[in-house]
Amino acid sequence: MSLRGVVRKATGQDVYVCHACNDCDIETRDEIDIPLSSLVQLILLNDEEALQCRTLWSDSVLEASRGACKRGLDLHAVMVALREESMRKAGI
């Protein structure tokens, strides 16, 4: 299943609504290696780098992602779904 499908199944969110406006990009110092807007684009490209990036595992980024999308995409739920998928693939 694609990453987009994983996110949609786990959250009901379709990351396709992202228009890459970059409004969701947040400042959190060294905890972001991939901005949230780029993380969504990686999901759309089915690039598994989205499951291994430092951004995904930062709790402060996870909290800051709440309400970050002006189009209503629940980035917090998306990140949680990606974390779960990453752990599933790692056998954790």
Summarize the structure.
By secondary structure, the chain is mostly helical. The protein contains five helices and no strands.
How far from one another are the termini? Answer: 19 Å
Unreliable segments (pLDDT under 50, ≥5 consecutive)? none
| Biggest pleated-sheet summary | none
Alpha plus pi helix count: 5
What labels would you give this structure?
92 residues; mainly alpha; 48% helix
Write a structural description.
This protein is 48% helix and 0% strand. It is globular. The longest helix has 16 residues, at 75-90. It starts with a helix and ends with a helix. It has helices at residues 3-11, 36-44, 54-57, 59-64, 75-90. The chain is an all-alpha fold and 92 residues long.
Task: Explain the layout of strands and helices.
Elements: H1 3-11, H2 36-44, H3 54-57, H4 59-64, H5 75-90
Helix pairs in contact: 1-5
